[in-house]
Amino acid sequence: MTTALRTHELGKRYGRSRHWALRDCTLDLPSGRVVALVGPNGAGKSTLLGLAAGLLAPTAGRVEVLGEDPSSGAEHLARVGFVSQDAPTYRGMSVADHLRLGAHLNPRWDERIVRERIDRLGIDPHRRTGSLSGGQRAQIALTMAIGKRPELLILDEPVAALDPLARREFMQDLMEAVAEQGLTVVLSSHLVSDLERACDYLVVLVDSQVRVAGDLDDLLASHRRMTGARRASDTGPAGQHVVTASHTDRQSTFVVRTAAPIVDPSWDAAPLGLEDLVLAYLRSDASSQRPRPTVEVVR
Is-contact 88 36, C-beta < 8 A? Predict the structure, then answer.
């Protein structure tokens, strides 16, 4: 299995600040997957993606993208597409101007794909992007990123400001591009419902640390919510790795990671959805009563 993005103890500190936006981050993402990168605000997601895209230089550690240093030169940058949350466009330039600029700057530019997408979106190429809706600007940014024919597409909260319909259209277009071009995608988003429809690999990043990473289906299959009579502590069922625990006067609920079927009749075991799985790891980190879980990597 080839690696799209690899980091080792990667860190970034801005200026003379003592605050690290990202610190000691170690990660290994496979190629050919659509990766969901999730975590709370301030976890370091945007900084990690900026480092991967070559927009930032690391303060510490190493980062490799497609086997190379992201700052290795224009030839490498042509292999990577990037769309940020604000879907940057030049408001005074027309859509056609943007496309000409993209063709000039990117040696792998695919004019046919770009023109077909613009026609299908029904966007007048002569309109200035400042007059377009947020959803249309996001689609222009995605079109230009796809037009590069990248091997890796990095998306940092690209649909956060869009309405539900525009969000759905953006994600549908993204998945079509993945299917047509065989892209590897790393997608950061707080909108778990969008990730569940599009992604097949999950990374949960909290305070710069990878809490869990792996194939989404494998992670969902190996985690259970277990409910039973009130326990006196956060020690869960024997042989199970407890991710998080909660209690009422009469009942205890544990989210556990297990490799074997749960047959104890004193527990009611139920599968988790993606949102519940993500929240379990976020809550486990927020708890001050138990040590942080070590990273779980599922291949």
Answer: no
